[in-house]
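Human: For the file, kindly provide a plain-text protein record giving the amino acid sequence and the backbone structure tokens, at your earliest convenience.
Assistant:
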Amino acid sequence: MTDKDQSITTPSGTYTTSNFQITYSFPPSTSIFQETRYANKRYAKNVGVVIETFNLSQSNSSYQERRLVRYHLE
């Protein structure tokens, strides 16, 4: 876990999060962009994942992002 206790704002609110980061390394001969890429999942206590960024494509340098829009607790 990295970036512990970082505040993140999504459409559903602001959360104190910890980041679970995964590092992916590609051989230089297979990637025309970066050799190292990261996937991040930011978790908030009692909520779960509130934001996620990732890119696993060797032919595309852009990242995709998903943010929590709403949730319901009972």
